[in-house]
Write a structure and sequence with these properties.
With 162 residues, the chain is an all-alpha fold. The chain is built from seven helices and no strands.
Length: 162
């Protein structure tokens, strides 16, 4: 399940980059994308902060296939929104500066994305029954703060380019 983005994101990234490349000369649109990306991150942070914790008993009972995960990923608006508003602009800019930076961005992005999913699944599988809700809430809120931090960075970048 953690590998689903590797399968589905290639098409999403290519479409996002093609669209971004065709619009790259429109500075106001790029600023709008930057602000939309920041709003998306703030929305995800709020959702992460406010949503109730899932029941670990029901999570461990579910079996997910790679195909099911890929289908969910491609039909979910989150990867599309991420790549159209955040990922493609970062990747495009990195490629223009130096192609190695674009490769570093993609490789580190997927290393952390897939790695964090695998570590989380293994941790909850092994230690989930011992992890109290208050600690799970703290973890989720810290991650929400990280999302807010990146949203502020995007807003700052957009603001300085005005």
């Amino acid at each position: 399940m953690a590998l689903a983005p590797v399968i589905t994101d290639c098409a999403i990234i290519i479409l996002s980059l093609l669209l971004f490349h065709s619009l790259a000369h429109l500075k106001p649109l790029l600023l709008l994308l930057s602000f939309c990306g920041a709003l998306l991150l703030l929305y995800l942070a709020r959702e992460n902060w406010c949503n109730p914790l899932p029941d670990t008993a029901t999570l461990s009972e579910k079996q997910h296939s790679l195909l099911e995960g890929a289908l969910v990923n491609v039909l979910s608006p989150h990867p599309w929104l991420f790549w159209f508003t955040i990922g493609a602009p970062v990747l495009y800019t990195a490629w223009k500066q130096q192609p190695a930076q674009a490769f570093l961005f993609l490789s580190s992005f997927y290393l952390f994305l897939i790695g964090s999913k695998v570590v989380t699944a293994l941790s909850f599988g092994i230690y989930g029954r011992f992890l109290q809700d208050k600690y799970r809430i703290i973890i989720m809120r810290v991650l929400s703060c990280v999302l807010v931090f990146f949203a502020v960075l995007l807003l700052w970048k957009g603001w300085t380019q005005l």
